Amino acid sequence: MIATKEARERGRPRSFVKEDAVATAMRLFHQRGYDAVGVAELCAVLGIKPPSFYAAFGSKLGLFEQALRHYAAGPANIFARALEGGGGVAAVIGRTFREAARLYPACDGVAGCLVIDGARNSADAEARALGALWKADSRRAIRDFIAAEYPAKADRLADLVTTALAGMSAAARDGADADMLRNFAGVMERAFRAEAGRADD
User: Fold this and answer.
1) Neighbour count for residue 179 (Cβ, 10 Å)
2) 56-71, pLDDT tens digit by residue?
3) What is the DSSP secondary structure assignment for residue 152, as one 8-state letter?
4) Segment 7-58, tens digit of pLDDT
5) Are the C-beta atoms of 27 and 108 separated by less than 8 Å?
6) Residue ranges of the HTH tetR-type domain (predicted)?
7) pTM reported for the whole predicted model
8) What does the angle CA 126 – CA 127 – CA 133 come to, to the nearest 5 degrees?
9) Cα gap 16→45, rounded to integer Å
10) 7 in a domain, yes or no?
């Protein structure tokens, strides 16, 4: 057992901390997208050799999944942050839009949402599928929350929210600033309230 552990750890520097490595990789994937970040670059940035990389993460896709988990567990999970403020559905969704407007603009060269854009248009089918799964999970969480107050409109309203957030992320990556996104967030909050308050067609 000792020999096996030694073999697994061989080549990994003493300073290697997996959680820190995931956070570093998350930033690279967020900044440039899945396809633009290679294993050789990851190894160089993390200060480990390929055998240690594969022992720690299994594959680049495995590291990407861990990066998505790290991202969603932190302050970048704007819907979770919005829920912490309490209130009804419209209040929480409005807060979600405002959080997106605050978080999505470029900061130190990173803009938009990793979950929405990290694997967009990737040539790797598995990476695209993983990104789609995370986006579907995010939409489901929003839809289920909305359904508690607006069950008949939950799907329609969830589509409004997720489409708006995707547009905000894309706009931020294209250079939209915080003022533009705040204005848009206000428009979308009013649109959500209007749609939620409409009589069913």
Assistant:
1) 10
2) 999 999 999 999 999 9
3) G
4) 444 545 546 799 999 999 999 999 999 999 999 999 999 999 999 999 999 9
5) no
6) 15-75
7) 0.87
8) 90
9) 11
10) no
